[in-house]
Every structure is written in structure tokens, then in C-alpha cells.
Amino acid sequence: xxxxxxxxxxxxxxxxxxxxxxxxxxxxxxxxxxxxxxxxxxxxxxxxxxxxxxxxxxxxxxxxxxxxxxxxxxxxxxxxxxxxxxxxxxxxxxxxxxxxxxxxxxxxxxxxxxxxxxxxxxxxxxxxxxxxxxxxxxxxxxxxxxxxxxxxxxxxxxxxxxxxxxxxxxxxxxxxxxxxxxxxxxxxxxxxxxxxxxxxxxxxxxxxxxxxxxxxxxxxxxxxxxxxxxxxxxxxxxxxxxxxxxxxxxxxxxxxxxxxxxxxxxxxxxxxxxxxxxxxxxxxxxxxxxxxxxx
Length: 295
Description:
The protein has 13 helices and two strands; from the N terminus they run H-H-H-H-H-H-H-H-H-H-H-H-H-E-E. It is mainly alpha-helical. It has a domain of 154 residues. The longest helix has 21 residues.
């Protein structure tokens, strides 16, 4: 996807102005993003590809502007997501697709400027949940879309496609939990995005799936969430991603279940039993077999 540098620069300048101004920053950024998207799409008359490209460029400009003046990236992420949803709805685009694209661009741009990738993934999910509450968008679906976009980007940059993905996946679940979001949806999205990202850059997927599943289940335990339910969602996300990308769904599911059980093992024997009960056997029509004993 090519970058419209003029569009990126325009949004960067507007976000810098919003951060330096005296008004409400989140609203100012949201208005900038929404107005920019509407202007671009109405100018091209192409809602599909043009919208996806514009969303990516606008998110890049927003993060770049925040970084240039030391703005709070979490605030910018929230404002960007709100603006994207508003603008997308106004031009009749597919909201969940643009939420995912926004989160992906926010994380990629943060990586490009040397920022904290896990922190960006967390901010993207938090911003989504906070931003869509009054916009008539299904919260669980939006959470999953943001988590998938963030994880997809994280799995493609630097060392984040290896064991570091556990930290990214954990941050995504933590972000959802901190603002009362659906942890299961975040976990499922994180696994789906991990698969999408590793597949696109040709990296070995199954080890990364294991690490990501371990990360989301550990995070669920840390925040007092439903460990077994999160494990099941993680396996479902791996299965969905595998089917979408033509990867062996049984292997992907087993890799996710392995990570989930590893995480459960650090919690308690009871947690292991609970996770085994819901994350192995038949899940989403796929037989899931884990070779390790995890006693």
C-alpha cells in the first residue's frame, strides 16, 4: 500500500496543533481525522481501497505528530480511532475493517519511530474500546478488530515475530481489561492478527501462535479474568486465522492450546484442568490434540 505523504504531513501538522492547543485533545484529533477521511473519500468517490489507504495514512500522521511534540500516544490512539469510526460511518465504509487498519497503522508507525510496540498495541485496543462506546459499534467486534490489527503489525516488525509476541499479546489483553473491554474478544483477535502477520512476512507461524496464546492467558490471569474462557478464545482465533490463510487448522489450534496450557501451568493445577477442558478436544469443529502432559 503506497503512502500519500501530503496527507500524512497534513494530519501530522493538525495533530501537533491539537496537542499544543488549549482545547480537548482527543476531540480535536478525532475531528481532524474524521474531517480528513470524509474529504479524501468524497474527493475520490471510492470508498473501498481509497478508504483503507487513507485510514492508514491518517493514523500514521497522527502518531508521527504526537511523537514530534512528545504527546501522549494513548490519547492520540483514542482520538484517531474515534475519528476513523465517525468518518467511516459518514462515507458508508466498513467500520470494523477501518478499525483494524487504524490499529495496524498505529502500531507500525510506532515501531518505525522507535517506540514501544507492545505499548502501542495496548493503546490501540484501549482507544478503540473507549472511543466506540457512543458510536453504535459492537464493542466486542471492534475490540477483536483492533486486537487483530495491532497483533498483525506487531508480528511483522523486528523481533516481535518471535517470543516477544507474548508480551504484545499480553499487552492487548491488559489494554482491554483496563477499560472494561471484552478480554475474550481481545485474545481471539490477538491470535488471528498474529497469524495474519506472520503469514504475510513468511515467518514460521506455529511457534509464534504458542507464544501469543501463552501471553493472552497469562494476562487474563494477571487481571483476574476468565483464564479458561480466554484460552478457548485464543484457540478459536488460531483456528479462524488458519482457515483464512490456508494453514493447517489442527496444528494452529494445537499450538495455541499448548501456549494456553503453559500459561495455565504457572497459575495452578486447577487452571490447567479448566483450560484443558475447553481448549482441547473439539473446538470450533477442529480436533485439538496437545502432546505435552502439562500436569
